[in-house]
Each structure stands twice: as structure tokens, then as C-alpha cells.
Predict the structure.
Amino acid sequence: MLTGLIYNIAQKFSLAGTTLLSWFAAFAMMWIVIGNLGVLPHKLMLYATPLSLLETFVAALIIQKVSDRHP
């Protein structure tokens, strides 16, 4: 589902815009929900946030390279 989301967003936005919008749509909201449930330690966010941003950036980069869209 995340791949489809990133693909659709990549058709209209730059790589940076795609990365940030996709990250917010998927990971930021998920971490807010998990944080509200209180099931994970808050120090985990120090590692999870940059790694999830990296994951979203790499996914957007791959989708940009394999799709027909040329920046």
C-alpha cells in the first residue's frame, strides 16, 4: 500500500516533496498512534524517525527511477 501511495504522490511532486508527504502520510501518523497507546519507549523515536525517513526517501527514489516520470 505504501508503494502505491508513493507512486501516486511521485506523479505530482518532486523527490523531496514525495518523500516528506509519503513519510507524513504513513509513518508520522503511525508513530502518533503508537505513541498515544504508550506501547513503545519514547527513546525509540531517536532511531525510528530518521530510519523511517531514509526508508521513505529510498522508496521514492526507486519509484522515481523506474517510473516514466522524468524530473
